[in-house]
Amino acid sequence: MQQDSKGKKARKKILVLRQYEPVKQTFVISESTQIGRGISPEWAVKGREIPERFKDLDILITTLHSSQISRNHTGIFRGDDNNEDEETFYITDLNSLNGTYLNGERLRKEQEKALSIGDRIELSKDLELKITDIRNANQNHHALLVGNEGFNLVGVEPDLKKLAEQLNRRGFAGNIRTLLSKKFQSNSGKYIATKQNILDHLDEAAYLTTNKSHFIFHYSGHGDQYGLCLGDEKITPSELYLKLKNIRGKKAIILDCCHAGTFMMQPSNLEEMAEGGTFLNKKNKILIPQDTLVMAACTYAEKAYEAPQATIAGGQYMGKFTATLVKYLDKHKESFDLANLEKEFESALAGSPFYIHHQKPVFNGPSYTMVTAHTNIFKKSDLAELSKSKENEEQRSVPRIFDEETPSIELNDSLST
After folding, report:
1. pLDDT tens digits, residue range 233-250?
2. Taking Cα atoms as reference points, which of 141, 144, 290, 145 lies closest to residue 212?
3. Confidence of residue 41 (pLDDT cuts 50, 70, 90)
4. Which of 313, 373, 381, 396 lies 20 to 30 A from 165 at CA?
5. For position 209, what pLDDT does the model report?
């Protein structure tokens, strides 16, 4: 456990608590806290037994003013400071009249239960809160990696995994959140890439970041000329940028999908334009938030492709744009500016003169510095294998789009050129 300049132990973890109804609110808990409808952290009900744990609860979150919720209702606290348990959060009921429920089970008197991501907390039956995150507090860098691997795509999950491995070495360790459109188990719990979950995680980033933060949003999957495709839902440029403008510090948006350049085009042909929902400036252009670098895998009219990657993914498919970024991060352990890589990416994605699957990356925005990697995580690339991988990529690229003209491609199939 680290210590601050005054010799006190510095807290490593914070807990993110989210309320959805009747209003959306996000609470970031770093110290022992009580939740209730009171207006003071002091004990409110004379004559009611004060739990022993109450003395540790220095902070009050005032929530829904319902007669079913006690003024001192629930406590959330850390484990004992004298052992490793101090980084675990616990919940206890504060002798409330109508009880505290954890995942549907009412807590007994003075019962203390450890909390995990995904847990649901109910105060009486009037208010539900959900734990959406438990992460490092002493780190300014945060990343949200999103994937939609439906239809014909097979490289989305390797995209997110390999990029996360690199970001772990660049100051993001412990603060990388991954959302996929299918359920999967990770060390941080289960995350589903629905539109609402993505927007909620962006809201949380606004609470977690500071003016010195670096934030990365990466999307790998399907896209069209209206935005990012998530099954029957879409995230439009306006919806994404309206969330990003509230996130503090430097931001990098990395989009590996077909028509990614839509997030930098004039939206005169966008459906949302007619609905009056587009995030525009006075010149009728999409307004990219300040301090935001946007890296698109292709122009608004092009498709993006995925291909097998021998050197970095053991032959698994990855998006060619994401694979290019991962290879660059792996090769260049020094600090560098992402904004300066457009020409290098363009060259890497151009293919041979006889190769029909071209995609032109598009960058827009200010500098975004990737800090020096603190250790190697891959073996040095073998040049012969790299050359063979390049040949395979050109022969077996699969477009990141699904329509009547683009059949589903199995891993062992190839596209004729």
Report:
1. 999 998 999 999 999 999
2. 141
3. confident
4. 396
5. 87
Q: How far is CA 232 from the centre of its chain?
A: 21
- Alpha carbon distances (Å) from 362 to 22, 265, 304, 340, 353: 41, 11, 12, 12, 20
Beta partners for residue 247, in sequence order: none
| Residue 260 tokens, joined | 């990614």
Token pair belonging to 221? 């999957």
What six digits make up the tokens of 404?
């009547």
State residue 15 phi and psi, 5-degree precision.
-115, 130
Residues 6+ apart with CB under 8 A from 274: none
d(CA 234, CA 145): 16
The tens digit of pLDDT for each residue in 192-206 reads 899 988 998 998 888
Q: What is the DSSP letter of 87?
A: G
Residues 204, 131: contact at Cβ < 8 Å?
no
Which tokens sit at 320?
A: 């060619």
Domains of the chain: 13-136 (2.60.200.20), 141-399 (3.40.50.1460)
Question: What backbone phi and psi angles, to 5 degrees, belong to 319?
Answer: -65, 135
Q: Which residues pair with 59 in a beta bridge?
A: 33
pLDDT at 185: 42
Gap between the Cα atoms of 62 and 319, Å rounded: 46
How far is Cα of residue 56 from the mean position of the Cα atoms in its chain? 32
Asked whether 45 and 72 are in contact (CB, 8 A), the reply is yes
Tokens at 313, concatenated: 């993914």
